Structure formats: C-alpha cells, structure tokens
C-alpha cells in the first residue's frame, strides 16, 4: 500500500482547511447574530485538515497500519455539537425520558466504538465494536428524524409563505444530514479500516466530501434559516408578521400555572406511528419595554408583600423588653426604699404587705399598658413579665447559694485552724 498522503490529496486537504478558516472568519464577522456552534465547527475542521495536509494527522501503528487520529478526534469534538444544533428545533421525550441529551451521549459512545474498532488488532473485536457503534447511530437517526418531524409539524401548521420557506429549508437540512452522516460508516467499511475495497487516498477524498456536506454546507443553511428568518429561535411565533404572545409571567412567579402542556405528536417511522413521542413546549421569553418591565417588577413585589405574613422585627421586641425592664427596675427601687423606711420603723409585717402591693402595682401598670397596645402584643408583655419574675427568683437563689458557700468555707478554715 502506498503512502496515505499523495500530493493531490494533500493539496486538496490544504485548500479545504483554508476554506473552513474563511468560513470561520465570516461567521465571526456576523456576531452577535451567530451561535457559537457556527464558529466552532468550521474552526475544528480547518485545524483537522491542516494537520492532515501536512502529514501530522496520522499515526503508524506497530503492525504497519495507519491510524487517522485527527479525523477521529474531529468526529469526537463535532458530532455532539451538531446534534445539539438540531436539538434546538424541538425537545422530544419518550414518555418521561428526554431523548435529546441521550442522543448526544450516544454520539460520543459511537465515535469511541469506531476508534476502538479502527485500532483493534483482532478481526472479531473490530466488528463487535463496529456493531455497537452502528447501534448507537441507528438510535441517533431515530431521535434526529423525530426532531425534524416535530419541527416540520410546527411550521406547516402556520401556513404562511415564509413558514413554507422554512419548511423547505428543514427538509433540505434533513436530507443533507442523513446523506452525509450515512457516508461515514460506509466509507469506513470499504476503506482499509474495514474490508479494504478502496485505497486510502480515495477514502480521504470521500471523507472530505462528507465533512463539507455535514459541517460547512449544513452549517451555513442552518445559520441562515435560524438567524436570517427566525431571529435565532426555532419557533413559528418568531416568523415576521406573527403576533408574539405576551409573557404573563416573565419572572417565573407562577411557574406551575403558566407551564404549557405538552403536545402529542404522532411521528411515522418505517410506516409505524410512534404515539408516545411528545414535544415539550418552551415558555416564551420576549423582550419587554423598560416601563412595562418596571411595572411588572413593582406589581410582583406588591403581591409578594401582601401575601407574605408580616413579622415583627427583632429590634421592636428588644425595645419592648428594654422599656418594661426599666419600668420594673424603677418599681423595685421604690419598693426597696419603702422597705428600708418600714424596717427603720420596726414594722416588718407591714413591709411585706407593702412589697406585695408594690409588685401588684407594677403588674397593674403593665396590664394597663397592655390594654392600650394591640391584641397581638398582650401575650408578648405577659411573657416579658414572667421572664422578669424568673430572673428575680434566680438572682435570689444565686445570692443565697453564694452566701451559704462563703459560710461553709469559713467553717472549714476554722476547723483546719483548730486541728
């Protein structure tokens, strides 16, 4: 077998690397009306073919076979991204299982299986890994076909000439996708990596044509449709002349109430109807005028304030406690003065009665204050009074305990001195 890189193939790969680089620069110049995928895909392709044209995109294995690592790496980096672009058309589910992210995961598994089959020395292992990769590809085809059908279903229901133009574009994208993606496993089979029917140089040219279809041509048509006609959203309401529905809940305040129901879409595949496939509707997020936006923010804040139970601040309760604690201290001060006067006169029994009267008087003052306050504050004042009385009792017990401890200490010291 001759060298992989002949002069003609190397020159063709270099030209295609330059074309992909020019497409990358063009997409960058269209910003901000261009998604990052439209820049990323041709950029990766330009690097891949630049490496292949210089002979750095292949590795020779121990058994003499050549492994095109740059080509395989580009598949691993671009296939999930292309499926993500298609997933923007619709979100489909099988019962409660989302199919879009599963298809992207299956594409990664498929490429890994293809790489493993390419470098496997044993024939049976090579075809086993190829079978696993082909199974993943069939699953990807079914999901992508369903997504395209759901997209066509949405735009065909509008019926306007511009919507029909989008329908034609979607059918064109579907045709390009299935033709280009089917070329890769077929070329792999007939190239030296499979049954070795064609030369490696021929397979390199066929791979270049497939990449030009599924990345360059497909990417330009997809970008011109999504951003040239639909304002970047695969939604029939984004067509010019269609009335945009008002976003009743732009901030997600009523998430469950405004969640749109899922549409049952009957997709036909190989003559059979898949009735359990559903299209998950997206909530519309339209740009609102600044004044309208401020009104919605103010109304939502007022509604949330009205519905939220009003709570008293900690500072208010602290002020109440300080106020009534001070009043209780004044009452204690007056009661102590009255007790000292009565003790000096030698009327111990009457002093006890006077103290009870003063305490009851302070409680009456608090009760009068509670009567003036709101009904919700009475319980709080009563709790404060209970706390104050408990604090007085604790202070008395502590003082008695300290006095008893001091007396016991003195007795022990006296006993030691006697010994």
From TrEMBL:
<keyword id="KW-0732">Signal</keyword>
<keyword id="KW-0600">Photoreceptor protein</keyword>
<feature type="transmembrane region" description="Helical">
    <location>
        <begin position="103"/>
        <end position="122"/>
    </location>
</feature>
<feature type="transmembrane region" description="Helical">
    <location>
        <begin position="128"/>
        <end position="152"/>
    </location>
</feature>
<dbReference type="InterPro" id="IPR001425">
    <property type="entry name" value="Arc/bac/fun_rhodopsins"/>
</dbReference>
<feature type="region of interest" description="Disordered">
    <location>
        <begin position="300"/>
        <end position="419"/>
    </location>
</feature>
<feature type="region of interest" description="Disordered">
    <location>
        <begin position="245"/>
        <end position="264"/>
    </location>
</feature>
<feature type="compositionally biased region" description="Basic residues">
    <location>
        <begin position="344"/>
        <end position="355"/>
    </location>
</feature>
<keyword id="KW-0675">Receptor</keyword>
<comment type="similarity">
    <text>Belongs to the archaeal/bacterial/fungal opsin family.</text>
</comment>
<feature type="compositionally biased region" description="Basic and acidic residues">
    <location>
        <begin position="400"/>
        <end position="419"/>
    </location>
</feature>
<keyword id="KW-0472">Membrane</keyword>
<feature type="transmembrane region" description="Helical">
    <location>
        <begin position="72"/>
        <end position="91"/>
    </location>
</feature>
<feature type="compositionally biased region" description="Basic and acidic residues">
    <location>
        <begin position="374"/>
        <end position="383"/>
    </location>
</feature>
<feature type="compositionally biased region" description="Basic and acidic residues">
    <location>
        <begin position="326"/>
        <end position="343"/>
    </location>
</feature>
<dbReference type="Pfam" id="PF01036">
    <property type="entry name" value="Bac_rhodopsin"/>
</dbReference>
<feature type="signal peptide">
    <location>
        <begin position="1"/>
        <end position="17"/>
    </location>
</feature>
<feature type="compositionally biased region" description="Basic residues">
    <location>
        <begin position="309"/>
        <end position="325"/>
    </location>
</feature>
<dbReference type="GO" id="GO:0007602">
    <property type="term" value="P:phototransduction"/>
</dbReference>
<keyword id="KW-1133">Transmembrane helix</keyword>
<keyword id="KW-0812">Transmembrane</keyword>
<dbReference type="GO" id="GO:0005886">
    <property type="term" value="C:plasma membrane"/>
</dbReference>
<dbReference type="GO" id="GO:0009881">
    <property type="term" value="F:photoreceptor activity"/>
</dbReference>
<protein>
    <submittedName>
        <fullName>Uncharacterized protein</fullName>
    </submittedName>
</protein>
<keyword id="KW-0716">Sensory transduction</keyword>
<keyword id="KW-0157">Chromophore</keyword>
<feature type="transmembrane region" description="Helical">
    <location>
        <begin position="172"/>
        <end position="191"/>
    </location>
</feature>
<keyword id="KW-0681">Retinal protein</keyword>
């Amino acid at each position: 077998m001759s060298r992989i890189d002949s002069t003609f193939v190397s020159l063709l790969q270099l030209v295609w690397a330059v074309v992909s680089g020019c497409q990358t620069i063009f997409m960058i110049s269209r910003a901000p009306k261009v998604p990052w995928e439209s820049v990323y895909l041709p950029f990766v392709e330009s690097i891949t073919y630049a490496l292949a044209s210089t002979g750095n995109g292949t590795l020779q294995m121990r058994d003499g076979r050549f492994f095109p690592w740059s080509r395989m790496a580009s598949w691993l980096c671009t296939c999930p991204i292309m499926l993500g672009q298609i997933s923007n058309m619709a979100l489909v589910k099988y019962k409660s299982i989302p199919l879009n992210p599963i298809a992207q995961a299956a594409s990664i598994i498929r490429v890994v299986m293809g790489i493993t089959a390419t470098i496997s020395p044993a024939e049976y292992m090579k075809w086993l890994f190829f079978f696993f990769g082909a199974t993943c590809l069939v699953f990807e085809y079914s999901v992508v076909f369903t997504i395209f059908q759901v997209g066509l279903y949405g735009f065909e229901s509008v019926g306007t000439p511009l919507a029909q133009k989008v329908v034609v574009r979607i059918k064109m994208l579907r045709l390009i996708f299935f033709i280009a993606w089917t070329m890769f496993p077929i070329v792999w089979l007939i190239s030296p990596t499979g049954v070795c029917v064609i030369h490696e140089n021929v397979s390199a040219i066929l791979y270049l044509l497939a990449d030009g279809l599924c990345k360059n041509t497909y990417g330009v048509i997809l970008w011109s449709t999504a951003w040239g006609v639909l304002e970047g959203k695969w939604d029939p309401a984004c067509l010019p002349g269609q009335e945009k529905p008002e976003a009743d809940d732009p901030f997600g305040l009523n998430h469950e109430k405004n969640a749109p129901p899922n549409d049952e879409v009957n997709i036909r595949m190989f003559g059979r109807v898949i009735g359990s496939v559903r299209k998950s509707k997206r909530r519309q997020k339209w740009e609102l005028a600044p004044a309208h936006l401020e009104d919605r923010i103010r109304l939502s804040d007022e509604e949330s304030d009205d519905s939220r139970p009003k709570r008293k601040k900690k500072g208010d309760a602290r002020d109440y406690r300080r106020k009534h604690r001070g009043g209780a201290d004044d009452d204690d001060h007056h009661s102590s003065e009255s007790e000292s006067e009565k003790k000096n006169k030698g009327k111990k029994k009457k002093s006890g009665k006077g103290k009870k009267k003063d305490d009851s008087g302070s409680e009456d003052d608090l009760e009068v204050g509670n009567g003036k306050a709101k009904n919700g504050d009475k319980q709080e004042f009563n709790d404060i009074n209970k706390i104050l009385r408990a604090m007085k009792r604790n202070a008395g017990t502590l003082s008695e305990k300290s006095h008893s401890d001091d007396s016991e200490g003195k007795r022990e010291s006296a006993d030691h001195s006697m010994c």
